[in-house]
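To whoever is covering the structure queue this week,

Two jobs came back overnight. Logging them here so there's a record in the thread.

Job A:
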Amino acid sequence: MTDWLSDAGDAAVAQDNQRRLAQAEARVQQAQRQIPALRVQLSQIDRKISQKTQNDDRLRENWTRLGCSRTSGKRLPWRLHPPKTPSAGDFIV
């Protein structure tokens, strides 16, 4: 009787292992099907990062041309950039 129970237990373990293996193979296949779409997303992200880097470089160039500080973006002292000429709307009567 012990041999029969042992054989039934071995068969159950083998069946469970087969089920787990089939599930793992299904997950692998699903992941492999997702790879092309993930590559497309990755290239889109790379493109956005490249564009942002180019925009940041352009902003830095513009800030330098306008006399702004590179780190804070604030204008340099007014001696380098005199204040604008006041207009009639700037005075309170």
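Job B:
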Amino acid sequence: MPARLPQEKLVAIARARNESLKPQDGRNPRQKGRDRSRRRESITRKLLPFFRRSSPVVEPEYISYPARSRNGGYRYVPAISPDEPLLDIRSVVRAAYDSRRLIALLLLLGMIGGGAATLMLSRKYTAQSSLYFDPMQIQFNFDGQSQSSATAQSAAAFINSQIRILTSNAVLQNVVEKLSLTNDPEFAGADAGSAAPYAVASSLKKAVTTLRDDNSYIVALNVTTHEPAKSAEIANAIVTSFLDYENKSVSELYSGINTALDQRLVDLSKKVHAAETAVDDYRAKNDMVTAKGDLISESRLAALNDALVEAQQKTIEAMAKVDAAKRLSLADAVAGMSDSEVTSATLVDLRRQYAVAASNLGRLESQLGSRHPSLTAAKASLDGLRAEINKELKRIASVAQTELSQAKKAEQDIAKELAAQKALKLSNTSNQAELNNLELQATAARNIYEAVLKKTRETNEERNITQSNVRVIEKAEPPTRANGPGRSVLLVAGVIGGAFFGFGAGLFFAIMRRLVRHPLVRSYFAPNGYS
């Protein structure tokens, strides 16, 4: 860094410059400049202690530089002391004051320019259309029942996929062709009229945005252009193109599925016919006659098995009845404690007569003596009823035993017949196994055919209801207000911003102007003889 010039040398340099810049027309403005310098020096001496108390004041002669005056002559601007700092608050304030006219001019120009710039800005308008995406995939079978299932994750994936399709080039290119956006300079640029549709679609994609709240099935489509009507028209065209694209895709998908299923049904029908023909031929060849679709031997075996189970149940019931009859005593019968299996109408009537006779005997014993003829007759009648009840109990036991014998005999006969049928079936096992194999193949082919036929019907039903998964709940309307703040707010902001810019530029030039006049800065660019 070069050394700072001493005070005496700076004074000599200033005097030499003043002599060299003296006017040649005979006029001497030097005295006026010195008077003005003295007045400024006096003011500076009074104000200097408030800014820098340690800065020395140049006493011998004040250094000045010539400058053009208002009347066409020269005026001398006080020079800056070498001891003053390059930049501080006082120097900034003095620089701003010295260049106040320039700062005011730039401030005014900035305000005018900022306001004009905001008025020249092109406004943008956003139109919005809302769609409802139903993630529930409704499926109908041929008997009218419906099934719906969708998890939160699958629903989110479905809606995100639909949003990607909504803003895809496949949809936007249809909008470009429908609205002739290749001729619109806003999207085609300088190539309006000759731009490729895919390039215009890519430019249109930048003006399209989608919004969706979390856990919501509603998606908002926003289109931003420089015209309100154009924004609404493009938004509605995108929605229409998206719905047409979805319907066309679904139609093509289900058409392909139905074609494949129809071809599959033809092949399966041939296989079912061949399998059923093989079963019928084998039955006719091996004399295995069927009744109502089943072999007669199989039907008889099943019937005998059911009959054996029923006979065993009757035997068990007969044994229970015999045991109950054996346990039944006269006292139990008279008291009415017999089971329903060993109760008869005769026994019930005898029990009622016995109760009446016993009640009559008790009444007579309380009124008559022990040898009274009426009392004796009542006792004889009660004894006769006891004998009748014992006789009825024996008859019931005999009947139960007879029923048990018959049930056991019937069970044994059915068991013998069932064993004979099983032996006959075992003798025909090889033919039956082959027949079962053929029938199994025919049944499998028939089940597959019915499943594919059912799927074909379900596909046709799904094709008819798929369009209900997407619905337009709000069409786009031309917006009445542009995006962002109004023009008055923009104008005020532009004026304020321009004012700050103009003031900053003027202050910057004023500071640079003062720095250039500083002796320390000038010493860097002084000739070698001054250093």
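Note for Job B: Residues 313 and 463 are 57 Å apart (CA to CA).

Please reply-all if you pick these up so we don't duplicate work.
Q.
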